[in-house]
Description:
Layout: H1 4-29, H2 38-88, H3 95-116, H4 123-137, H5 144-170, H6 177-196, H7 202-227, H8 239-251
Helix pairs in contact: 1-6, 1-7, 2-3, 2-5, 2-6, 2-7, 2-8, 3-4, 3-8
Amino acid sequence: xxxxxxxxxxxxxxxxxxxxxxxxxxxxxxxxxxxxxxxxxxxxxxxxxxxxxxxxxxxxxxxxxxxxxxxxxxxxxxxxxxxxxxxxxxxxxxxxxxxxxxxxxxxxxxxxxxxxxxxxxxxxxxxxxxxxxxxxxxxxxxxxxxxxxxxxxxxxxxxxxxxxxxxxxxxxxxxxxxxxxxxxxxxxxxxxxxxxxxxxxxxxxxxxxxxxxxxxxxxxxxxxxxxxxxxxxxxxxxxxxxxxxxxxxxxxxxxxx
Length: 257
């Protein structure tokens, strides 16, 4: 199955990792010529590194905020499912709606969660959610207090709609492609500047270069990981949907999955 994180990470290894290896091989074989105006060159290099680090930090913080927003909405959606299941027990004509709610919760677990690893939403869960809304409109209210309960049910459905929209938008590409282009270009510029500021002592140069390359590549990996919040090394805990399915099924009086 297509995995959004590993496909992105493979692209990074090819686009950034291979040039880094080529640089290290070339730098180890070619003698370092004397550098004129070394202090000015190093000062410019340090300034660029500082700006590039700030840029990476801003991207990382933006994605962390996005990650926790999606995580919070995932929790809210599962809570809305359970809340709706409890409210439906207060309606006399809600058996069809209960069945649709269980079907939707099951579709999320069986279809939506695997699809999110590919950065998309499943059509099966979307159809089940449409059917859930249609069933909510058809509920016959037989008492005054049922109108208030039905209003709360619609509010839960509205919350679920908002959370689904968040999942759809945030499942992939939370940073503009131009940002990733700037990250790649900035890394190449850093390689060039590292080449221009080499020193004759190769061991000293390696001690300076390798930790820097590793750290920057790890930060870029973290950015890619957070850009795909539902798959990767760090991903959103979706066990709340499994729990919601169990509770919704139990509250509707159906056998547990």
